[in-house]
Amino acid sequence: MEGTERGLTQTGYLGLGSNVGDRLANLRAAAARLPVVARSSVYETEPQGEVLDQPDFLNAVVAIETELDPDGLLRLVKGVEAELGRDFGQVRHGPRVIDIDVLLLGDIRLETARLTLPHREVTTRRFVLVPLLELDPSLPYRDALDRLEGQRVQRVGVL
Ligand code: PH2
Ligand code: MG
Ligand code: MG
């Protein structure tokens, strides 16, 4: 197959996160640069992962429609992160102006060095699952959400 065009439109879900600068403006600037067809609420969320001592994040999830394949979509989101001033030299899981994660793309299952689909955080992070299930309650992740404890997530507005 040539390039990244599949000639087939798929629905995907992207996780947006920011905990540096004007967090809401950062999420909105990212959404404006993506082929968004639906957006979740915005949630203020407790930091998870390797760096817990950092400011709370704002997180949201957007649904997109795209003909891009996983690599093409990854290139798109990395380009948007760079455009919005993401510093790629920073510590893993540390503070960031914008983070855009490919959560799901159609029913593709994939594990490469660059990308795992579904994204691992889909079953482990409330800051992903809550907005994802808000957007599409029929996704098969309700049990995963019920199993998670802690991880403060509070709805604070619209994207
Ligand atoms: N992103 C991380 C690490 N930790 N915690 C929250 N609450 N939200 C995030 O988006 C987040 C995080 C690395 O991408
Ligand atoms: Mg992330
Ligand atoms: Mg990321």
**And the CATH topology?**
Alpha-Beta Plaits
Mean pLDDT score = 94
Query: CATH homologous superfamily name?
Result: 7,8-Dihydro-6-hydroxymethylpterin-pyrophosphokinase HPPK
Separation of the first and last Cα atoms = 36 Å
Count of DSSP H/I helices: 4
Bound small-molecule species = 2-amino-6-hydroxymethyl-7,8-dihydro-3H-pteridin-4-one, magnesium ion
Helix content: 25-40%
The Cα radius of gyration reads: 15 Å
Number of domains: 1
Work out the strand percent.
25-35%
Question: Outline, from the CA principal axes?
Answer: globular
Structural class: alpha+beta
Order of helices and strands: EHEEEHEEEHHE
What's the level 1 CATH class? Answer: Alpha Beta
List segments where confidence is low: pLDDT < 50 over at least 5 consecutive residues. none
Largest sheet: 6 strands, antiparallel
Task: Quickly list its features.
single chain, 159 residues, alpha+beta, Alpha-Beta Plaits, two-stranded antiparallel ribbon, 4 helices, 8 strands, globular, binds 2-amino-6-hydroxymethyl-7,8-dihydro-3H-pteridin-4-one, binds magnesium ion
